[in-house]
């Protein structure tokens, strides 16, 4: 269920942001990004891999803005998975 889990966590992060709970939002986004990173690491076909990472929901999760806490940019845990 990792394919569903990251999407649920991303939505949860957005809900936490709307409630101004940045700490919980950060946790949800980071966990979602970790799952996306793991899934991307298992895709061997380069076109499928690039397409997965280019999908808008994945890009939102992996964006620096999603991983921001109180305006401070954090080190992206997924940097190794940018398109090659």
How would you portray this structure in words?
This protein has 84 residues and is mainly α. The chain has one domain. It is built from four helices and two strands. Strands 1-2 form a two-stranded antiparallel sheet. Helix 1 packs antiparallel against helix 2 (22-41). The protein starts with a helix and ends in an 11-residue tail after the last strand. Residues 68-79 have low confidence and may be disordered.
Structural category: mainly alpha
Strand order, largest beta sheet:
1-2
> How many domain modules?
1
In angstroms, what is the radius of gyration? Answer: 12 Å
Give the helix level as a range of percent.
Answer: 55-70%
The biggest sheet, with number of strands, parallel, antiparallel or mixed sense and barrel status, is: 2 strands, antiparallel
Instruction: Show unreliable segments.
Output: 68-79
> What distance lies between the first and last C-alpha atoms, to the nearest angstrom?
27 Å
Reading the helices and strands in chain order gives: HHHHEE
Mean of the pLDDT scores? 81
> What would you call the shape?
elongated
Number of strands: 2
Number of helices: 4
Beta-strand portion reads under 5%
Task: Write a brief caption for the model.
The chain contains four helices and two strands. It is mainly alpha-helical and 84 residues long.
Chart the SSEs and their pairings.
Layout: H1 2-18, H2 22-41, H3 46-54, H4 56-62, E1 68-69, E2 72-73
Antiparallel strand pairs: 1-2
Helix pairs in contact: 1-2
